[in-house]
Predict the structure.
Amino acid sequence: MNTRTSAVRIGLVYPELLGTYGDRGNAIVLVERCRWRGIPAELVEVRADETIPDSLDIYLFGGGEDDPQLIAADGMRASRDAIVRAHAGGAAVLAVCAGFQLVGHRYEAADGAVLDGIGLIDMVTRPGPNRLIGEVVVEPSASVHWGAAGPPARLTGFENHGGRTTLGPGVEALGRVVAGGGNGDGAGGDGALAERFVGTYLHGPVLPRNPGLADRLLAWVVAPNGGRLPELPSPLEERLRSERLRVGSAGPLRSWYQARRLARG
Amino acid sequence: MTRRTTRTRVAVSAGRAAGLASRLTGRGQGATISGRVMNLISPKLLAELAADQRVVLVSATNGKTTTTRLLTAALEAAGRPGEGPAVVSNSTGANLTSGIAPTLARSRGPGIAVLEVDERVLARVVDPLAPELLVLGNLSRDQLDRFGEVHAVGDKWRAVAEAHPDLAIVANASDPHVVWAATPAKVTWVALGLRWRQDAATCPSCGSLLDWSVDRFDCRACGFAQPDAQHRLTKDALVVEGRTVPLDLALPGEWNRYNAALAIVAATTHFGIEPDVAARAMAEVRSVAGRFMRIPLGDGREATVILAKNPAGWTEALRHVAAHVDAGVVVAVNAHVADGKDPSWLWDVPYEALAGHPTAAAGERRLDVAVRLRYAGVEHAIELDPIVAARALDSDDVSIIASYTQFSALYRKHR
């Protein structure tokens, strides 16, 4: 994929199962940020009764409720080889919440059911004592995986999950949790970061709120080998990101003050 | 009234005083605080207040306030003045246990109480209120951060039907969650159709993927399927007991035809009201607790206020406004507890339909709205106040589509 001749194929996997938290937004943002740069892009929806092809450039796995997550896990396992092959061949993966849990080895649900994931990332998820719900701020890891552009700016999102994810030895977190829960296993991180892979608990959805992260994912497939994407000014998205950073980083008192400010404009 | 104990009478008086104080100090409409005080003083209050009422409970994710209002209109029209039962109803949308008590306390002797109940509260009030009819509309994602998954609400409803197999229910046959919940009781089905299916992908009974290929749901794994309905909504009318009833509503939008269809079937099959009489009474209703009210913009124009709380509601509201080519739209969104604190649902709504319409992003979360509109290819202004935003739109037909707390602020100010 060093020289692209075809449109970037952005795959929204199982939107009817893994789409509870506006996850379609991540796909919309990737497609539009390509098109605004004059790069042809195409949104490919993989329906729940279809096999996941190995021909996509970016795979998006989103958040979902328990029953749908169970069915999604079956489908992802059945298509495991295609996903692993595509990823090894240059495709990028963004896995959020339920979708993130399923790229690991195993997910234990709150009711004791054990769900096998696809083992793309060395990690396991267990049920926690409570749901982690609220704004999250994450400082991205300084990792080689980001490529030439380096890590994106601080990430903001909204989490809503009961799982606690433990990364295997040597697996990097997406970043350090500045505010909120994240993986919630006591290690202080959120998500996972690997070559052309981002996993996270951040909704919002995460890419509309963090255009820098969207552009890292795109650069991995559009400009591999250390290339950079053409600049795309995003003042509106940055205004939203700084507003959410202020609200998300604030303690209880500051948070009350921020809410008053929001209401007054 | 005779069956009310002293304790309950004291509770009602104290609650009314609290409600009056709330209204006088401008803190609220008084229903909720008044009910809280009543419930606190007399725990058996709901059961006592409901004892001489024929109780109907209406619940759904979307449309419960309007369905309640429409059914009340039909019952009031059918009763002759001075005769027939009096009807009480919580028409302000105060639908938690605290909102129900003051409504029942208003009844002056035996009558009918048509009560809207929050979908997550329904299971708790069925025993004290002993309803003779439930009217169940739809279930879809709403305030996920606060209430959790849709399936869990459906399961709670089902427990009610299992515990009361003789209870009469009028239910939407096209929503798998509603069908799953109502089936154990005595159900009258109405086929309304279901356009928002993103919460209806899996079978509520066994968790397998539902087949929607022929526009009705069917589970290949366990046989759970859309029931055949005695009554159905067609493109132009409602077919009830084999008779075609035209729906010429003053209330706008396809979704209000669903609400009216449910209400007419309840009025006809349960209360024996002629469907034409019910439909005529509903046709007169213009605004329901601020929904669809018109607010003057101060320059000779008026804006219509539409409440949209979740992606299913938004999808219907957008279809309505986008059908008018020149319609201006203010998208007014907050993310307080009552709105849901996570506005990620904005990305489930097909705002692309607004392209070409004069549009504004408003409310405390206007930046989330603005980013969504930018990616939908919709040019827009950004303004905190929805009225200021509406004034600036170049359109003679402006709608303010508002999330719950944006809506209730407008209602309080302009009622």
Remarks:
- Chain B has a mean pLDDT of 90.
- The radius of gyration of chain B is 21 Å.
- The first helix of chain B runs from residue 6 to 24.
- Chain B touches chain A at residues 141, 144-145, 149-151, 197-198, 201-202, 207-209, 341-342, 344-348, 364-365, 367-368, 370-372, 374-376, 384-385 (CB under 8 Å).
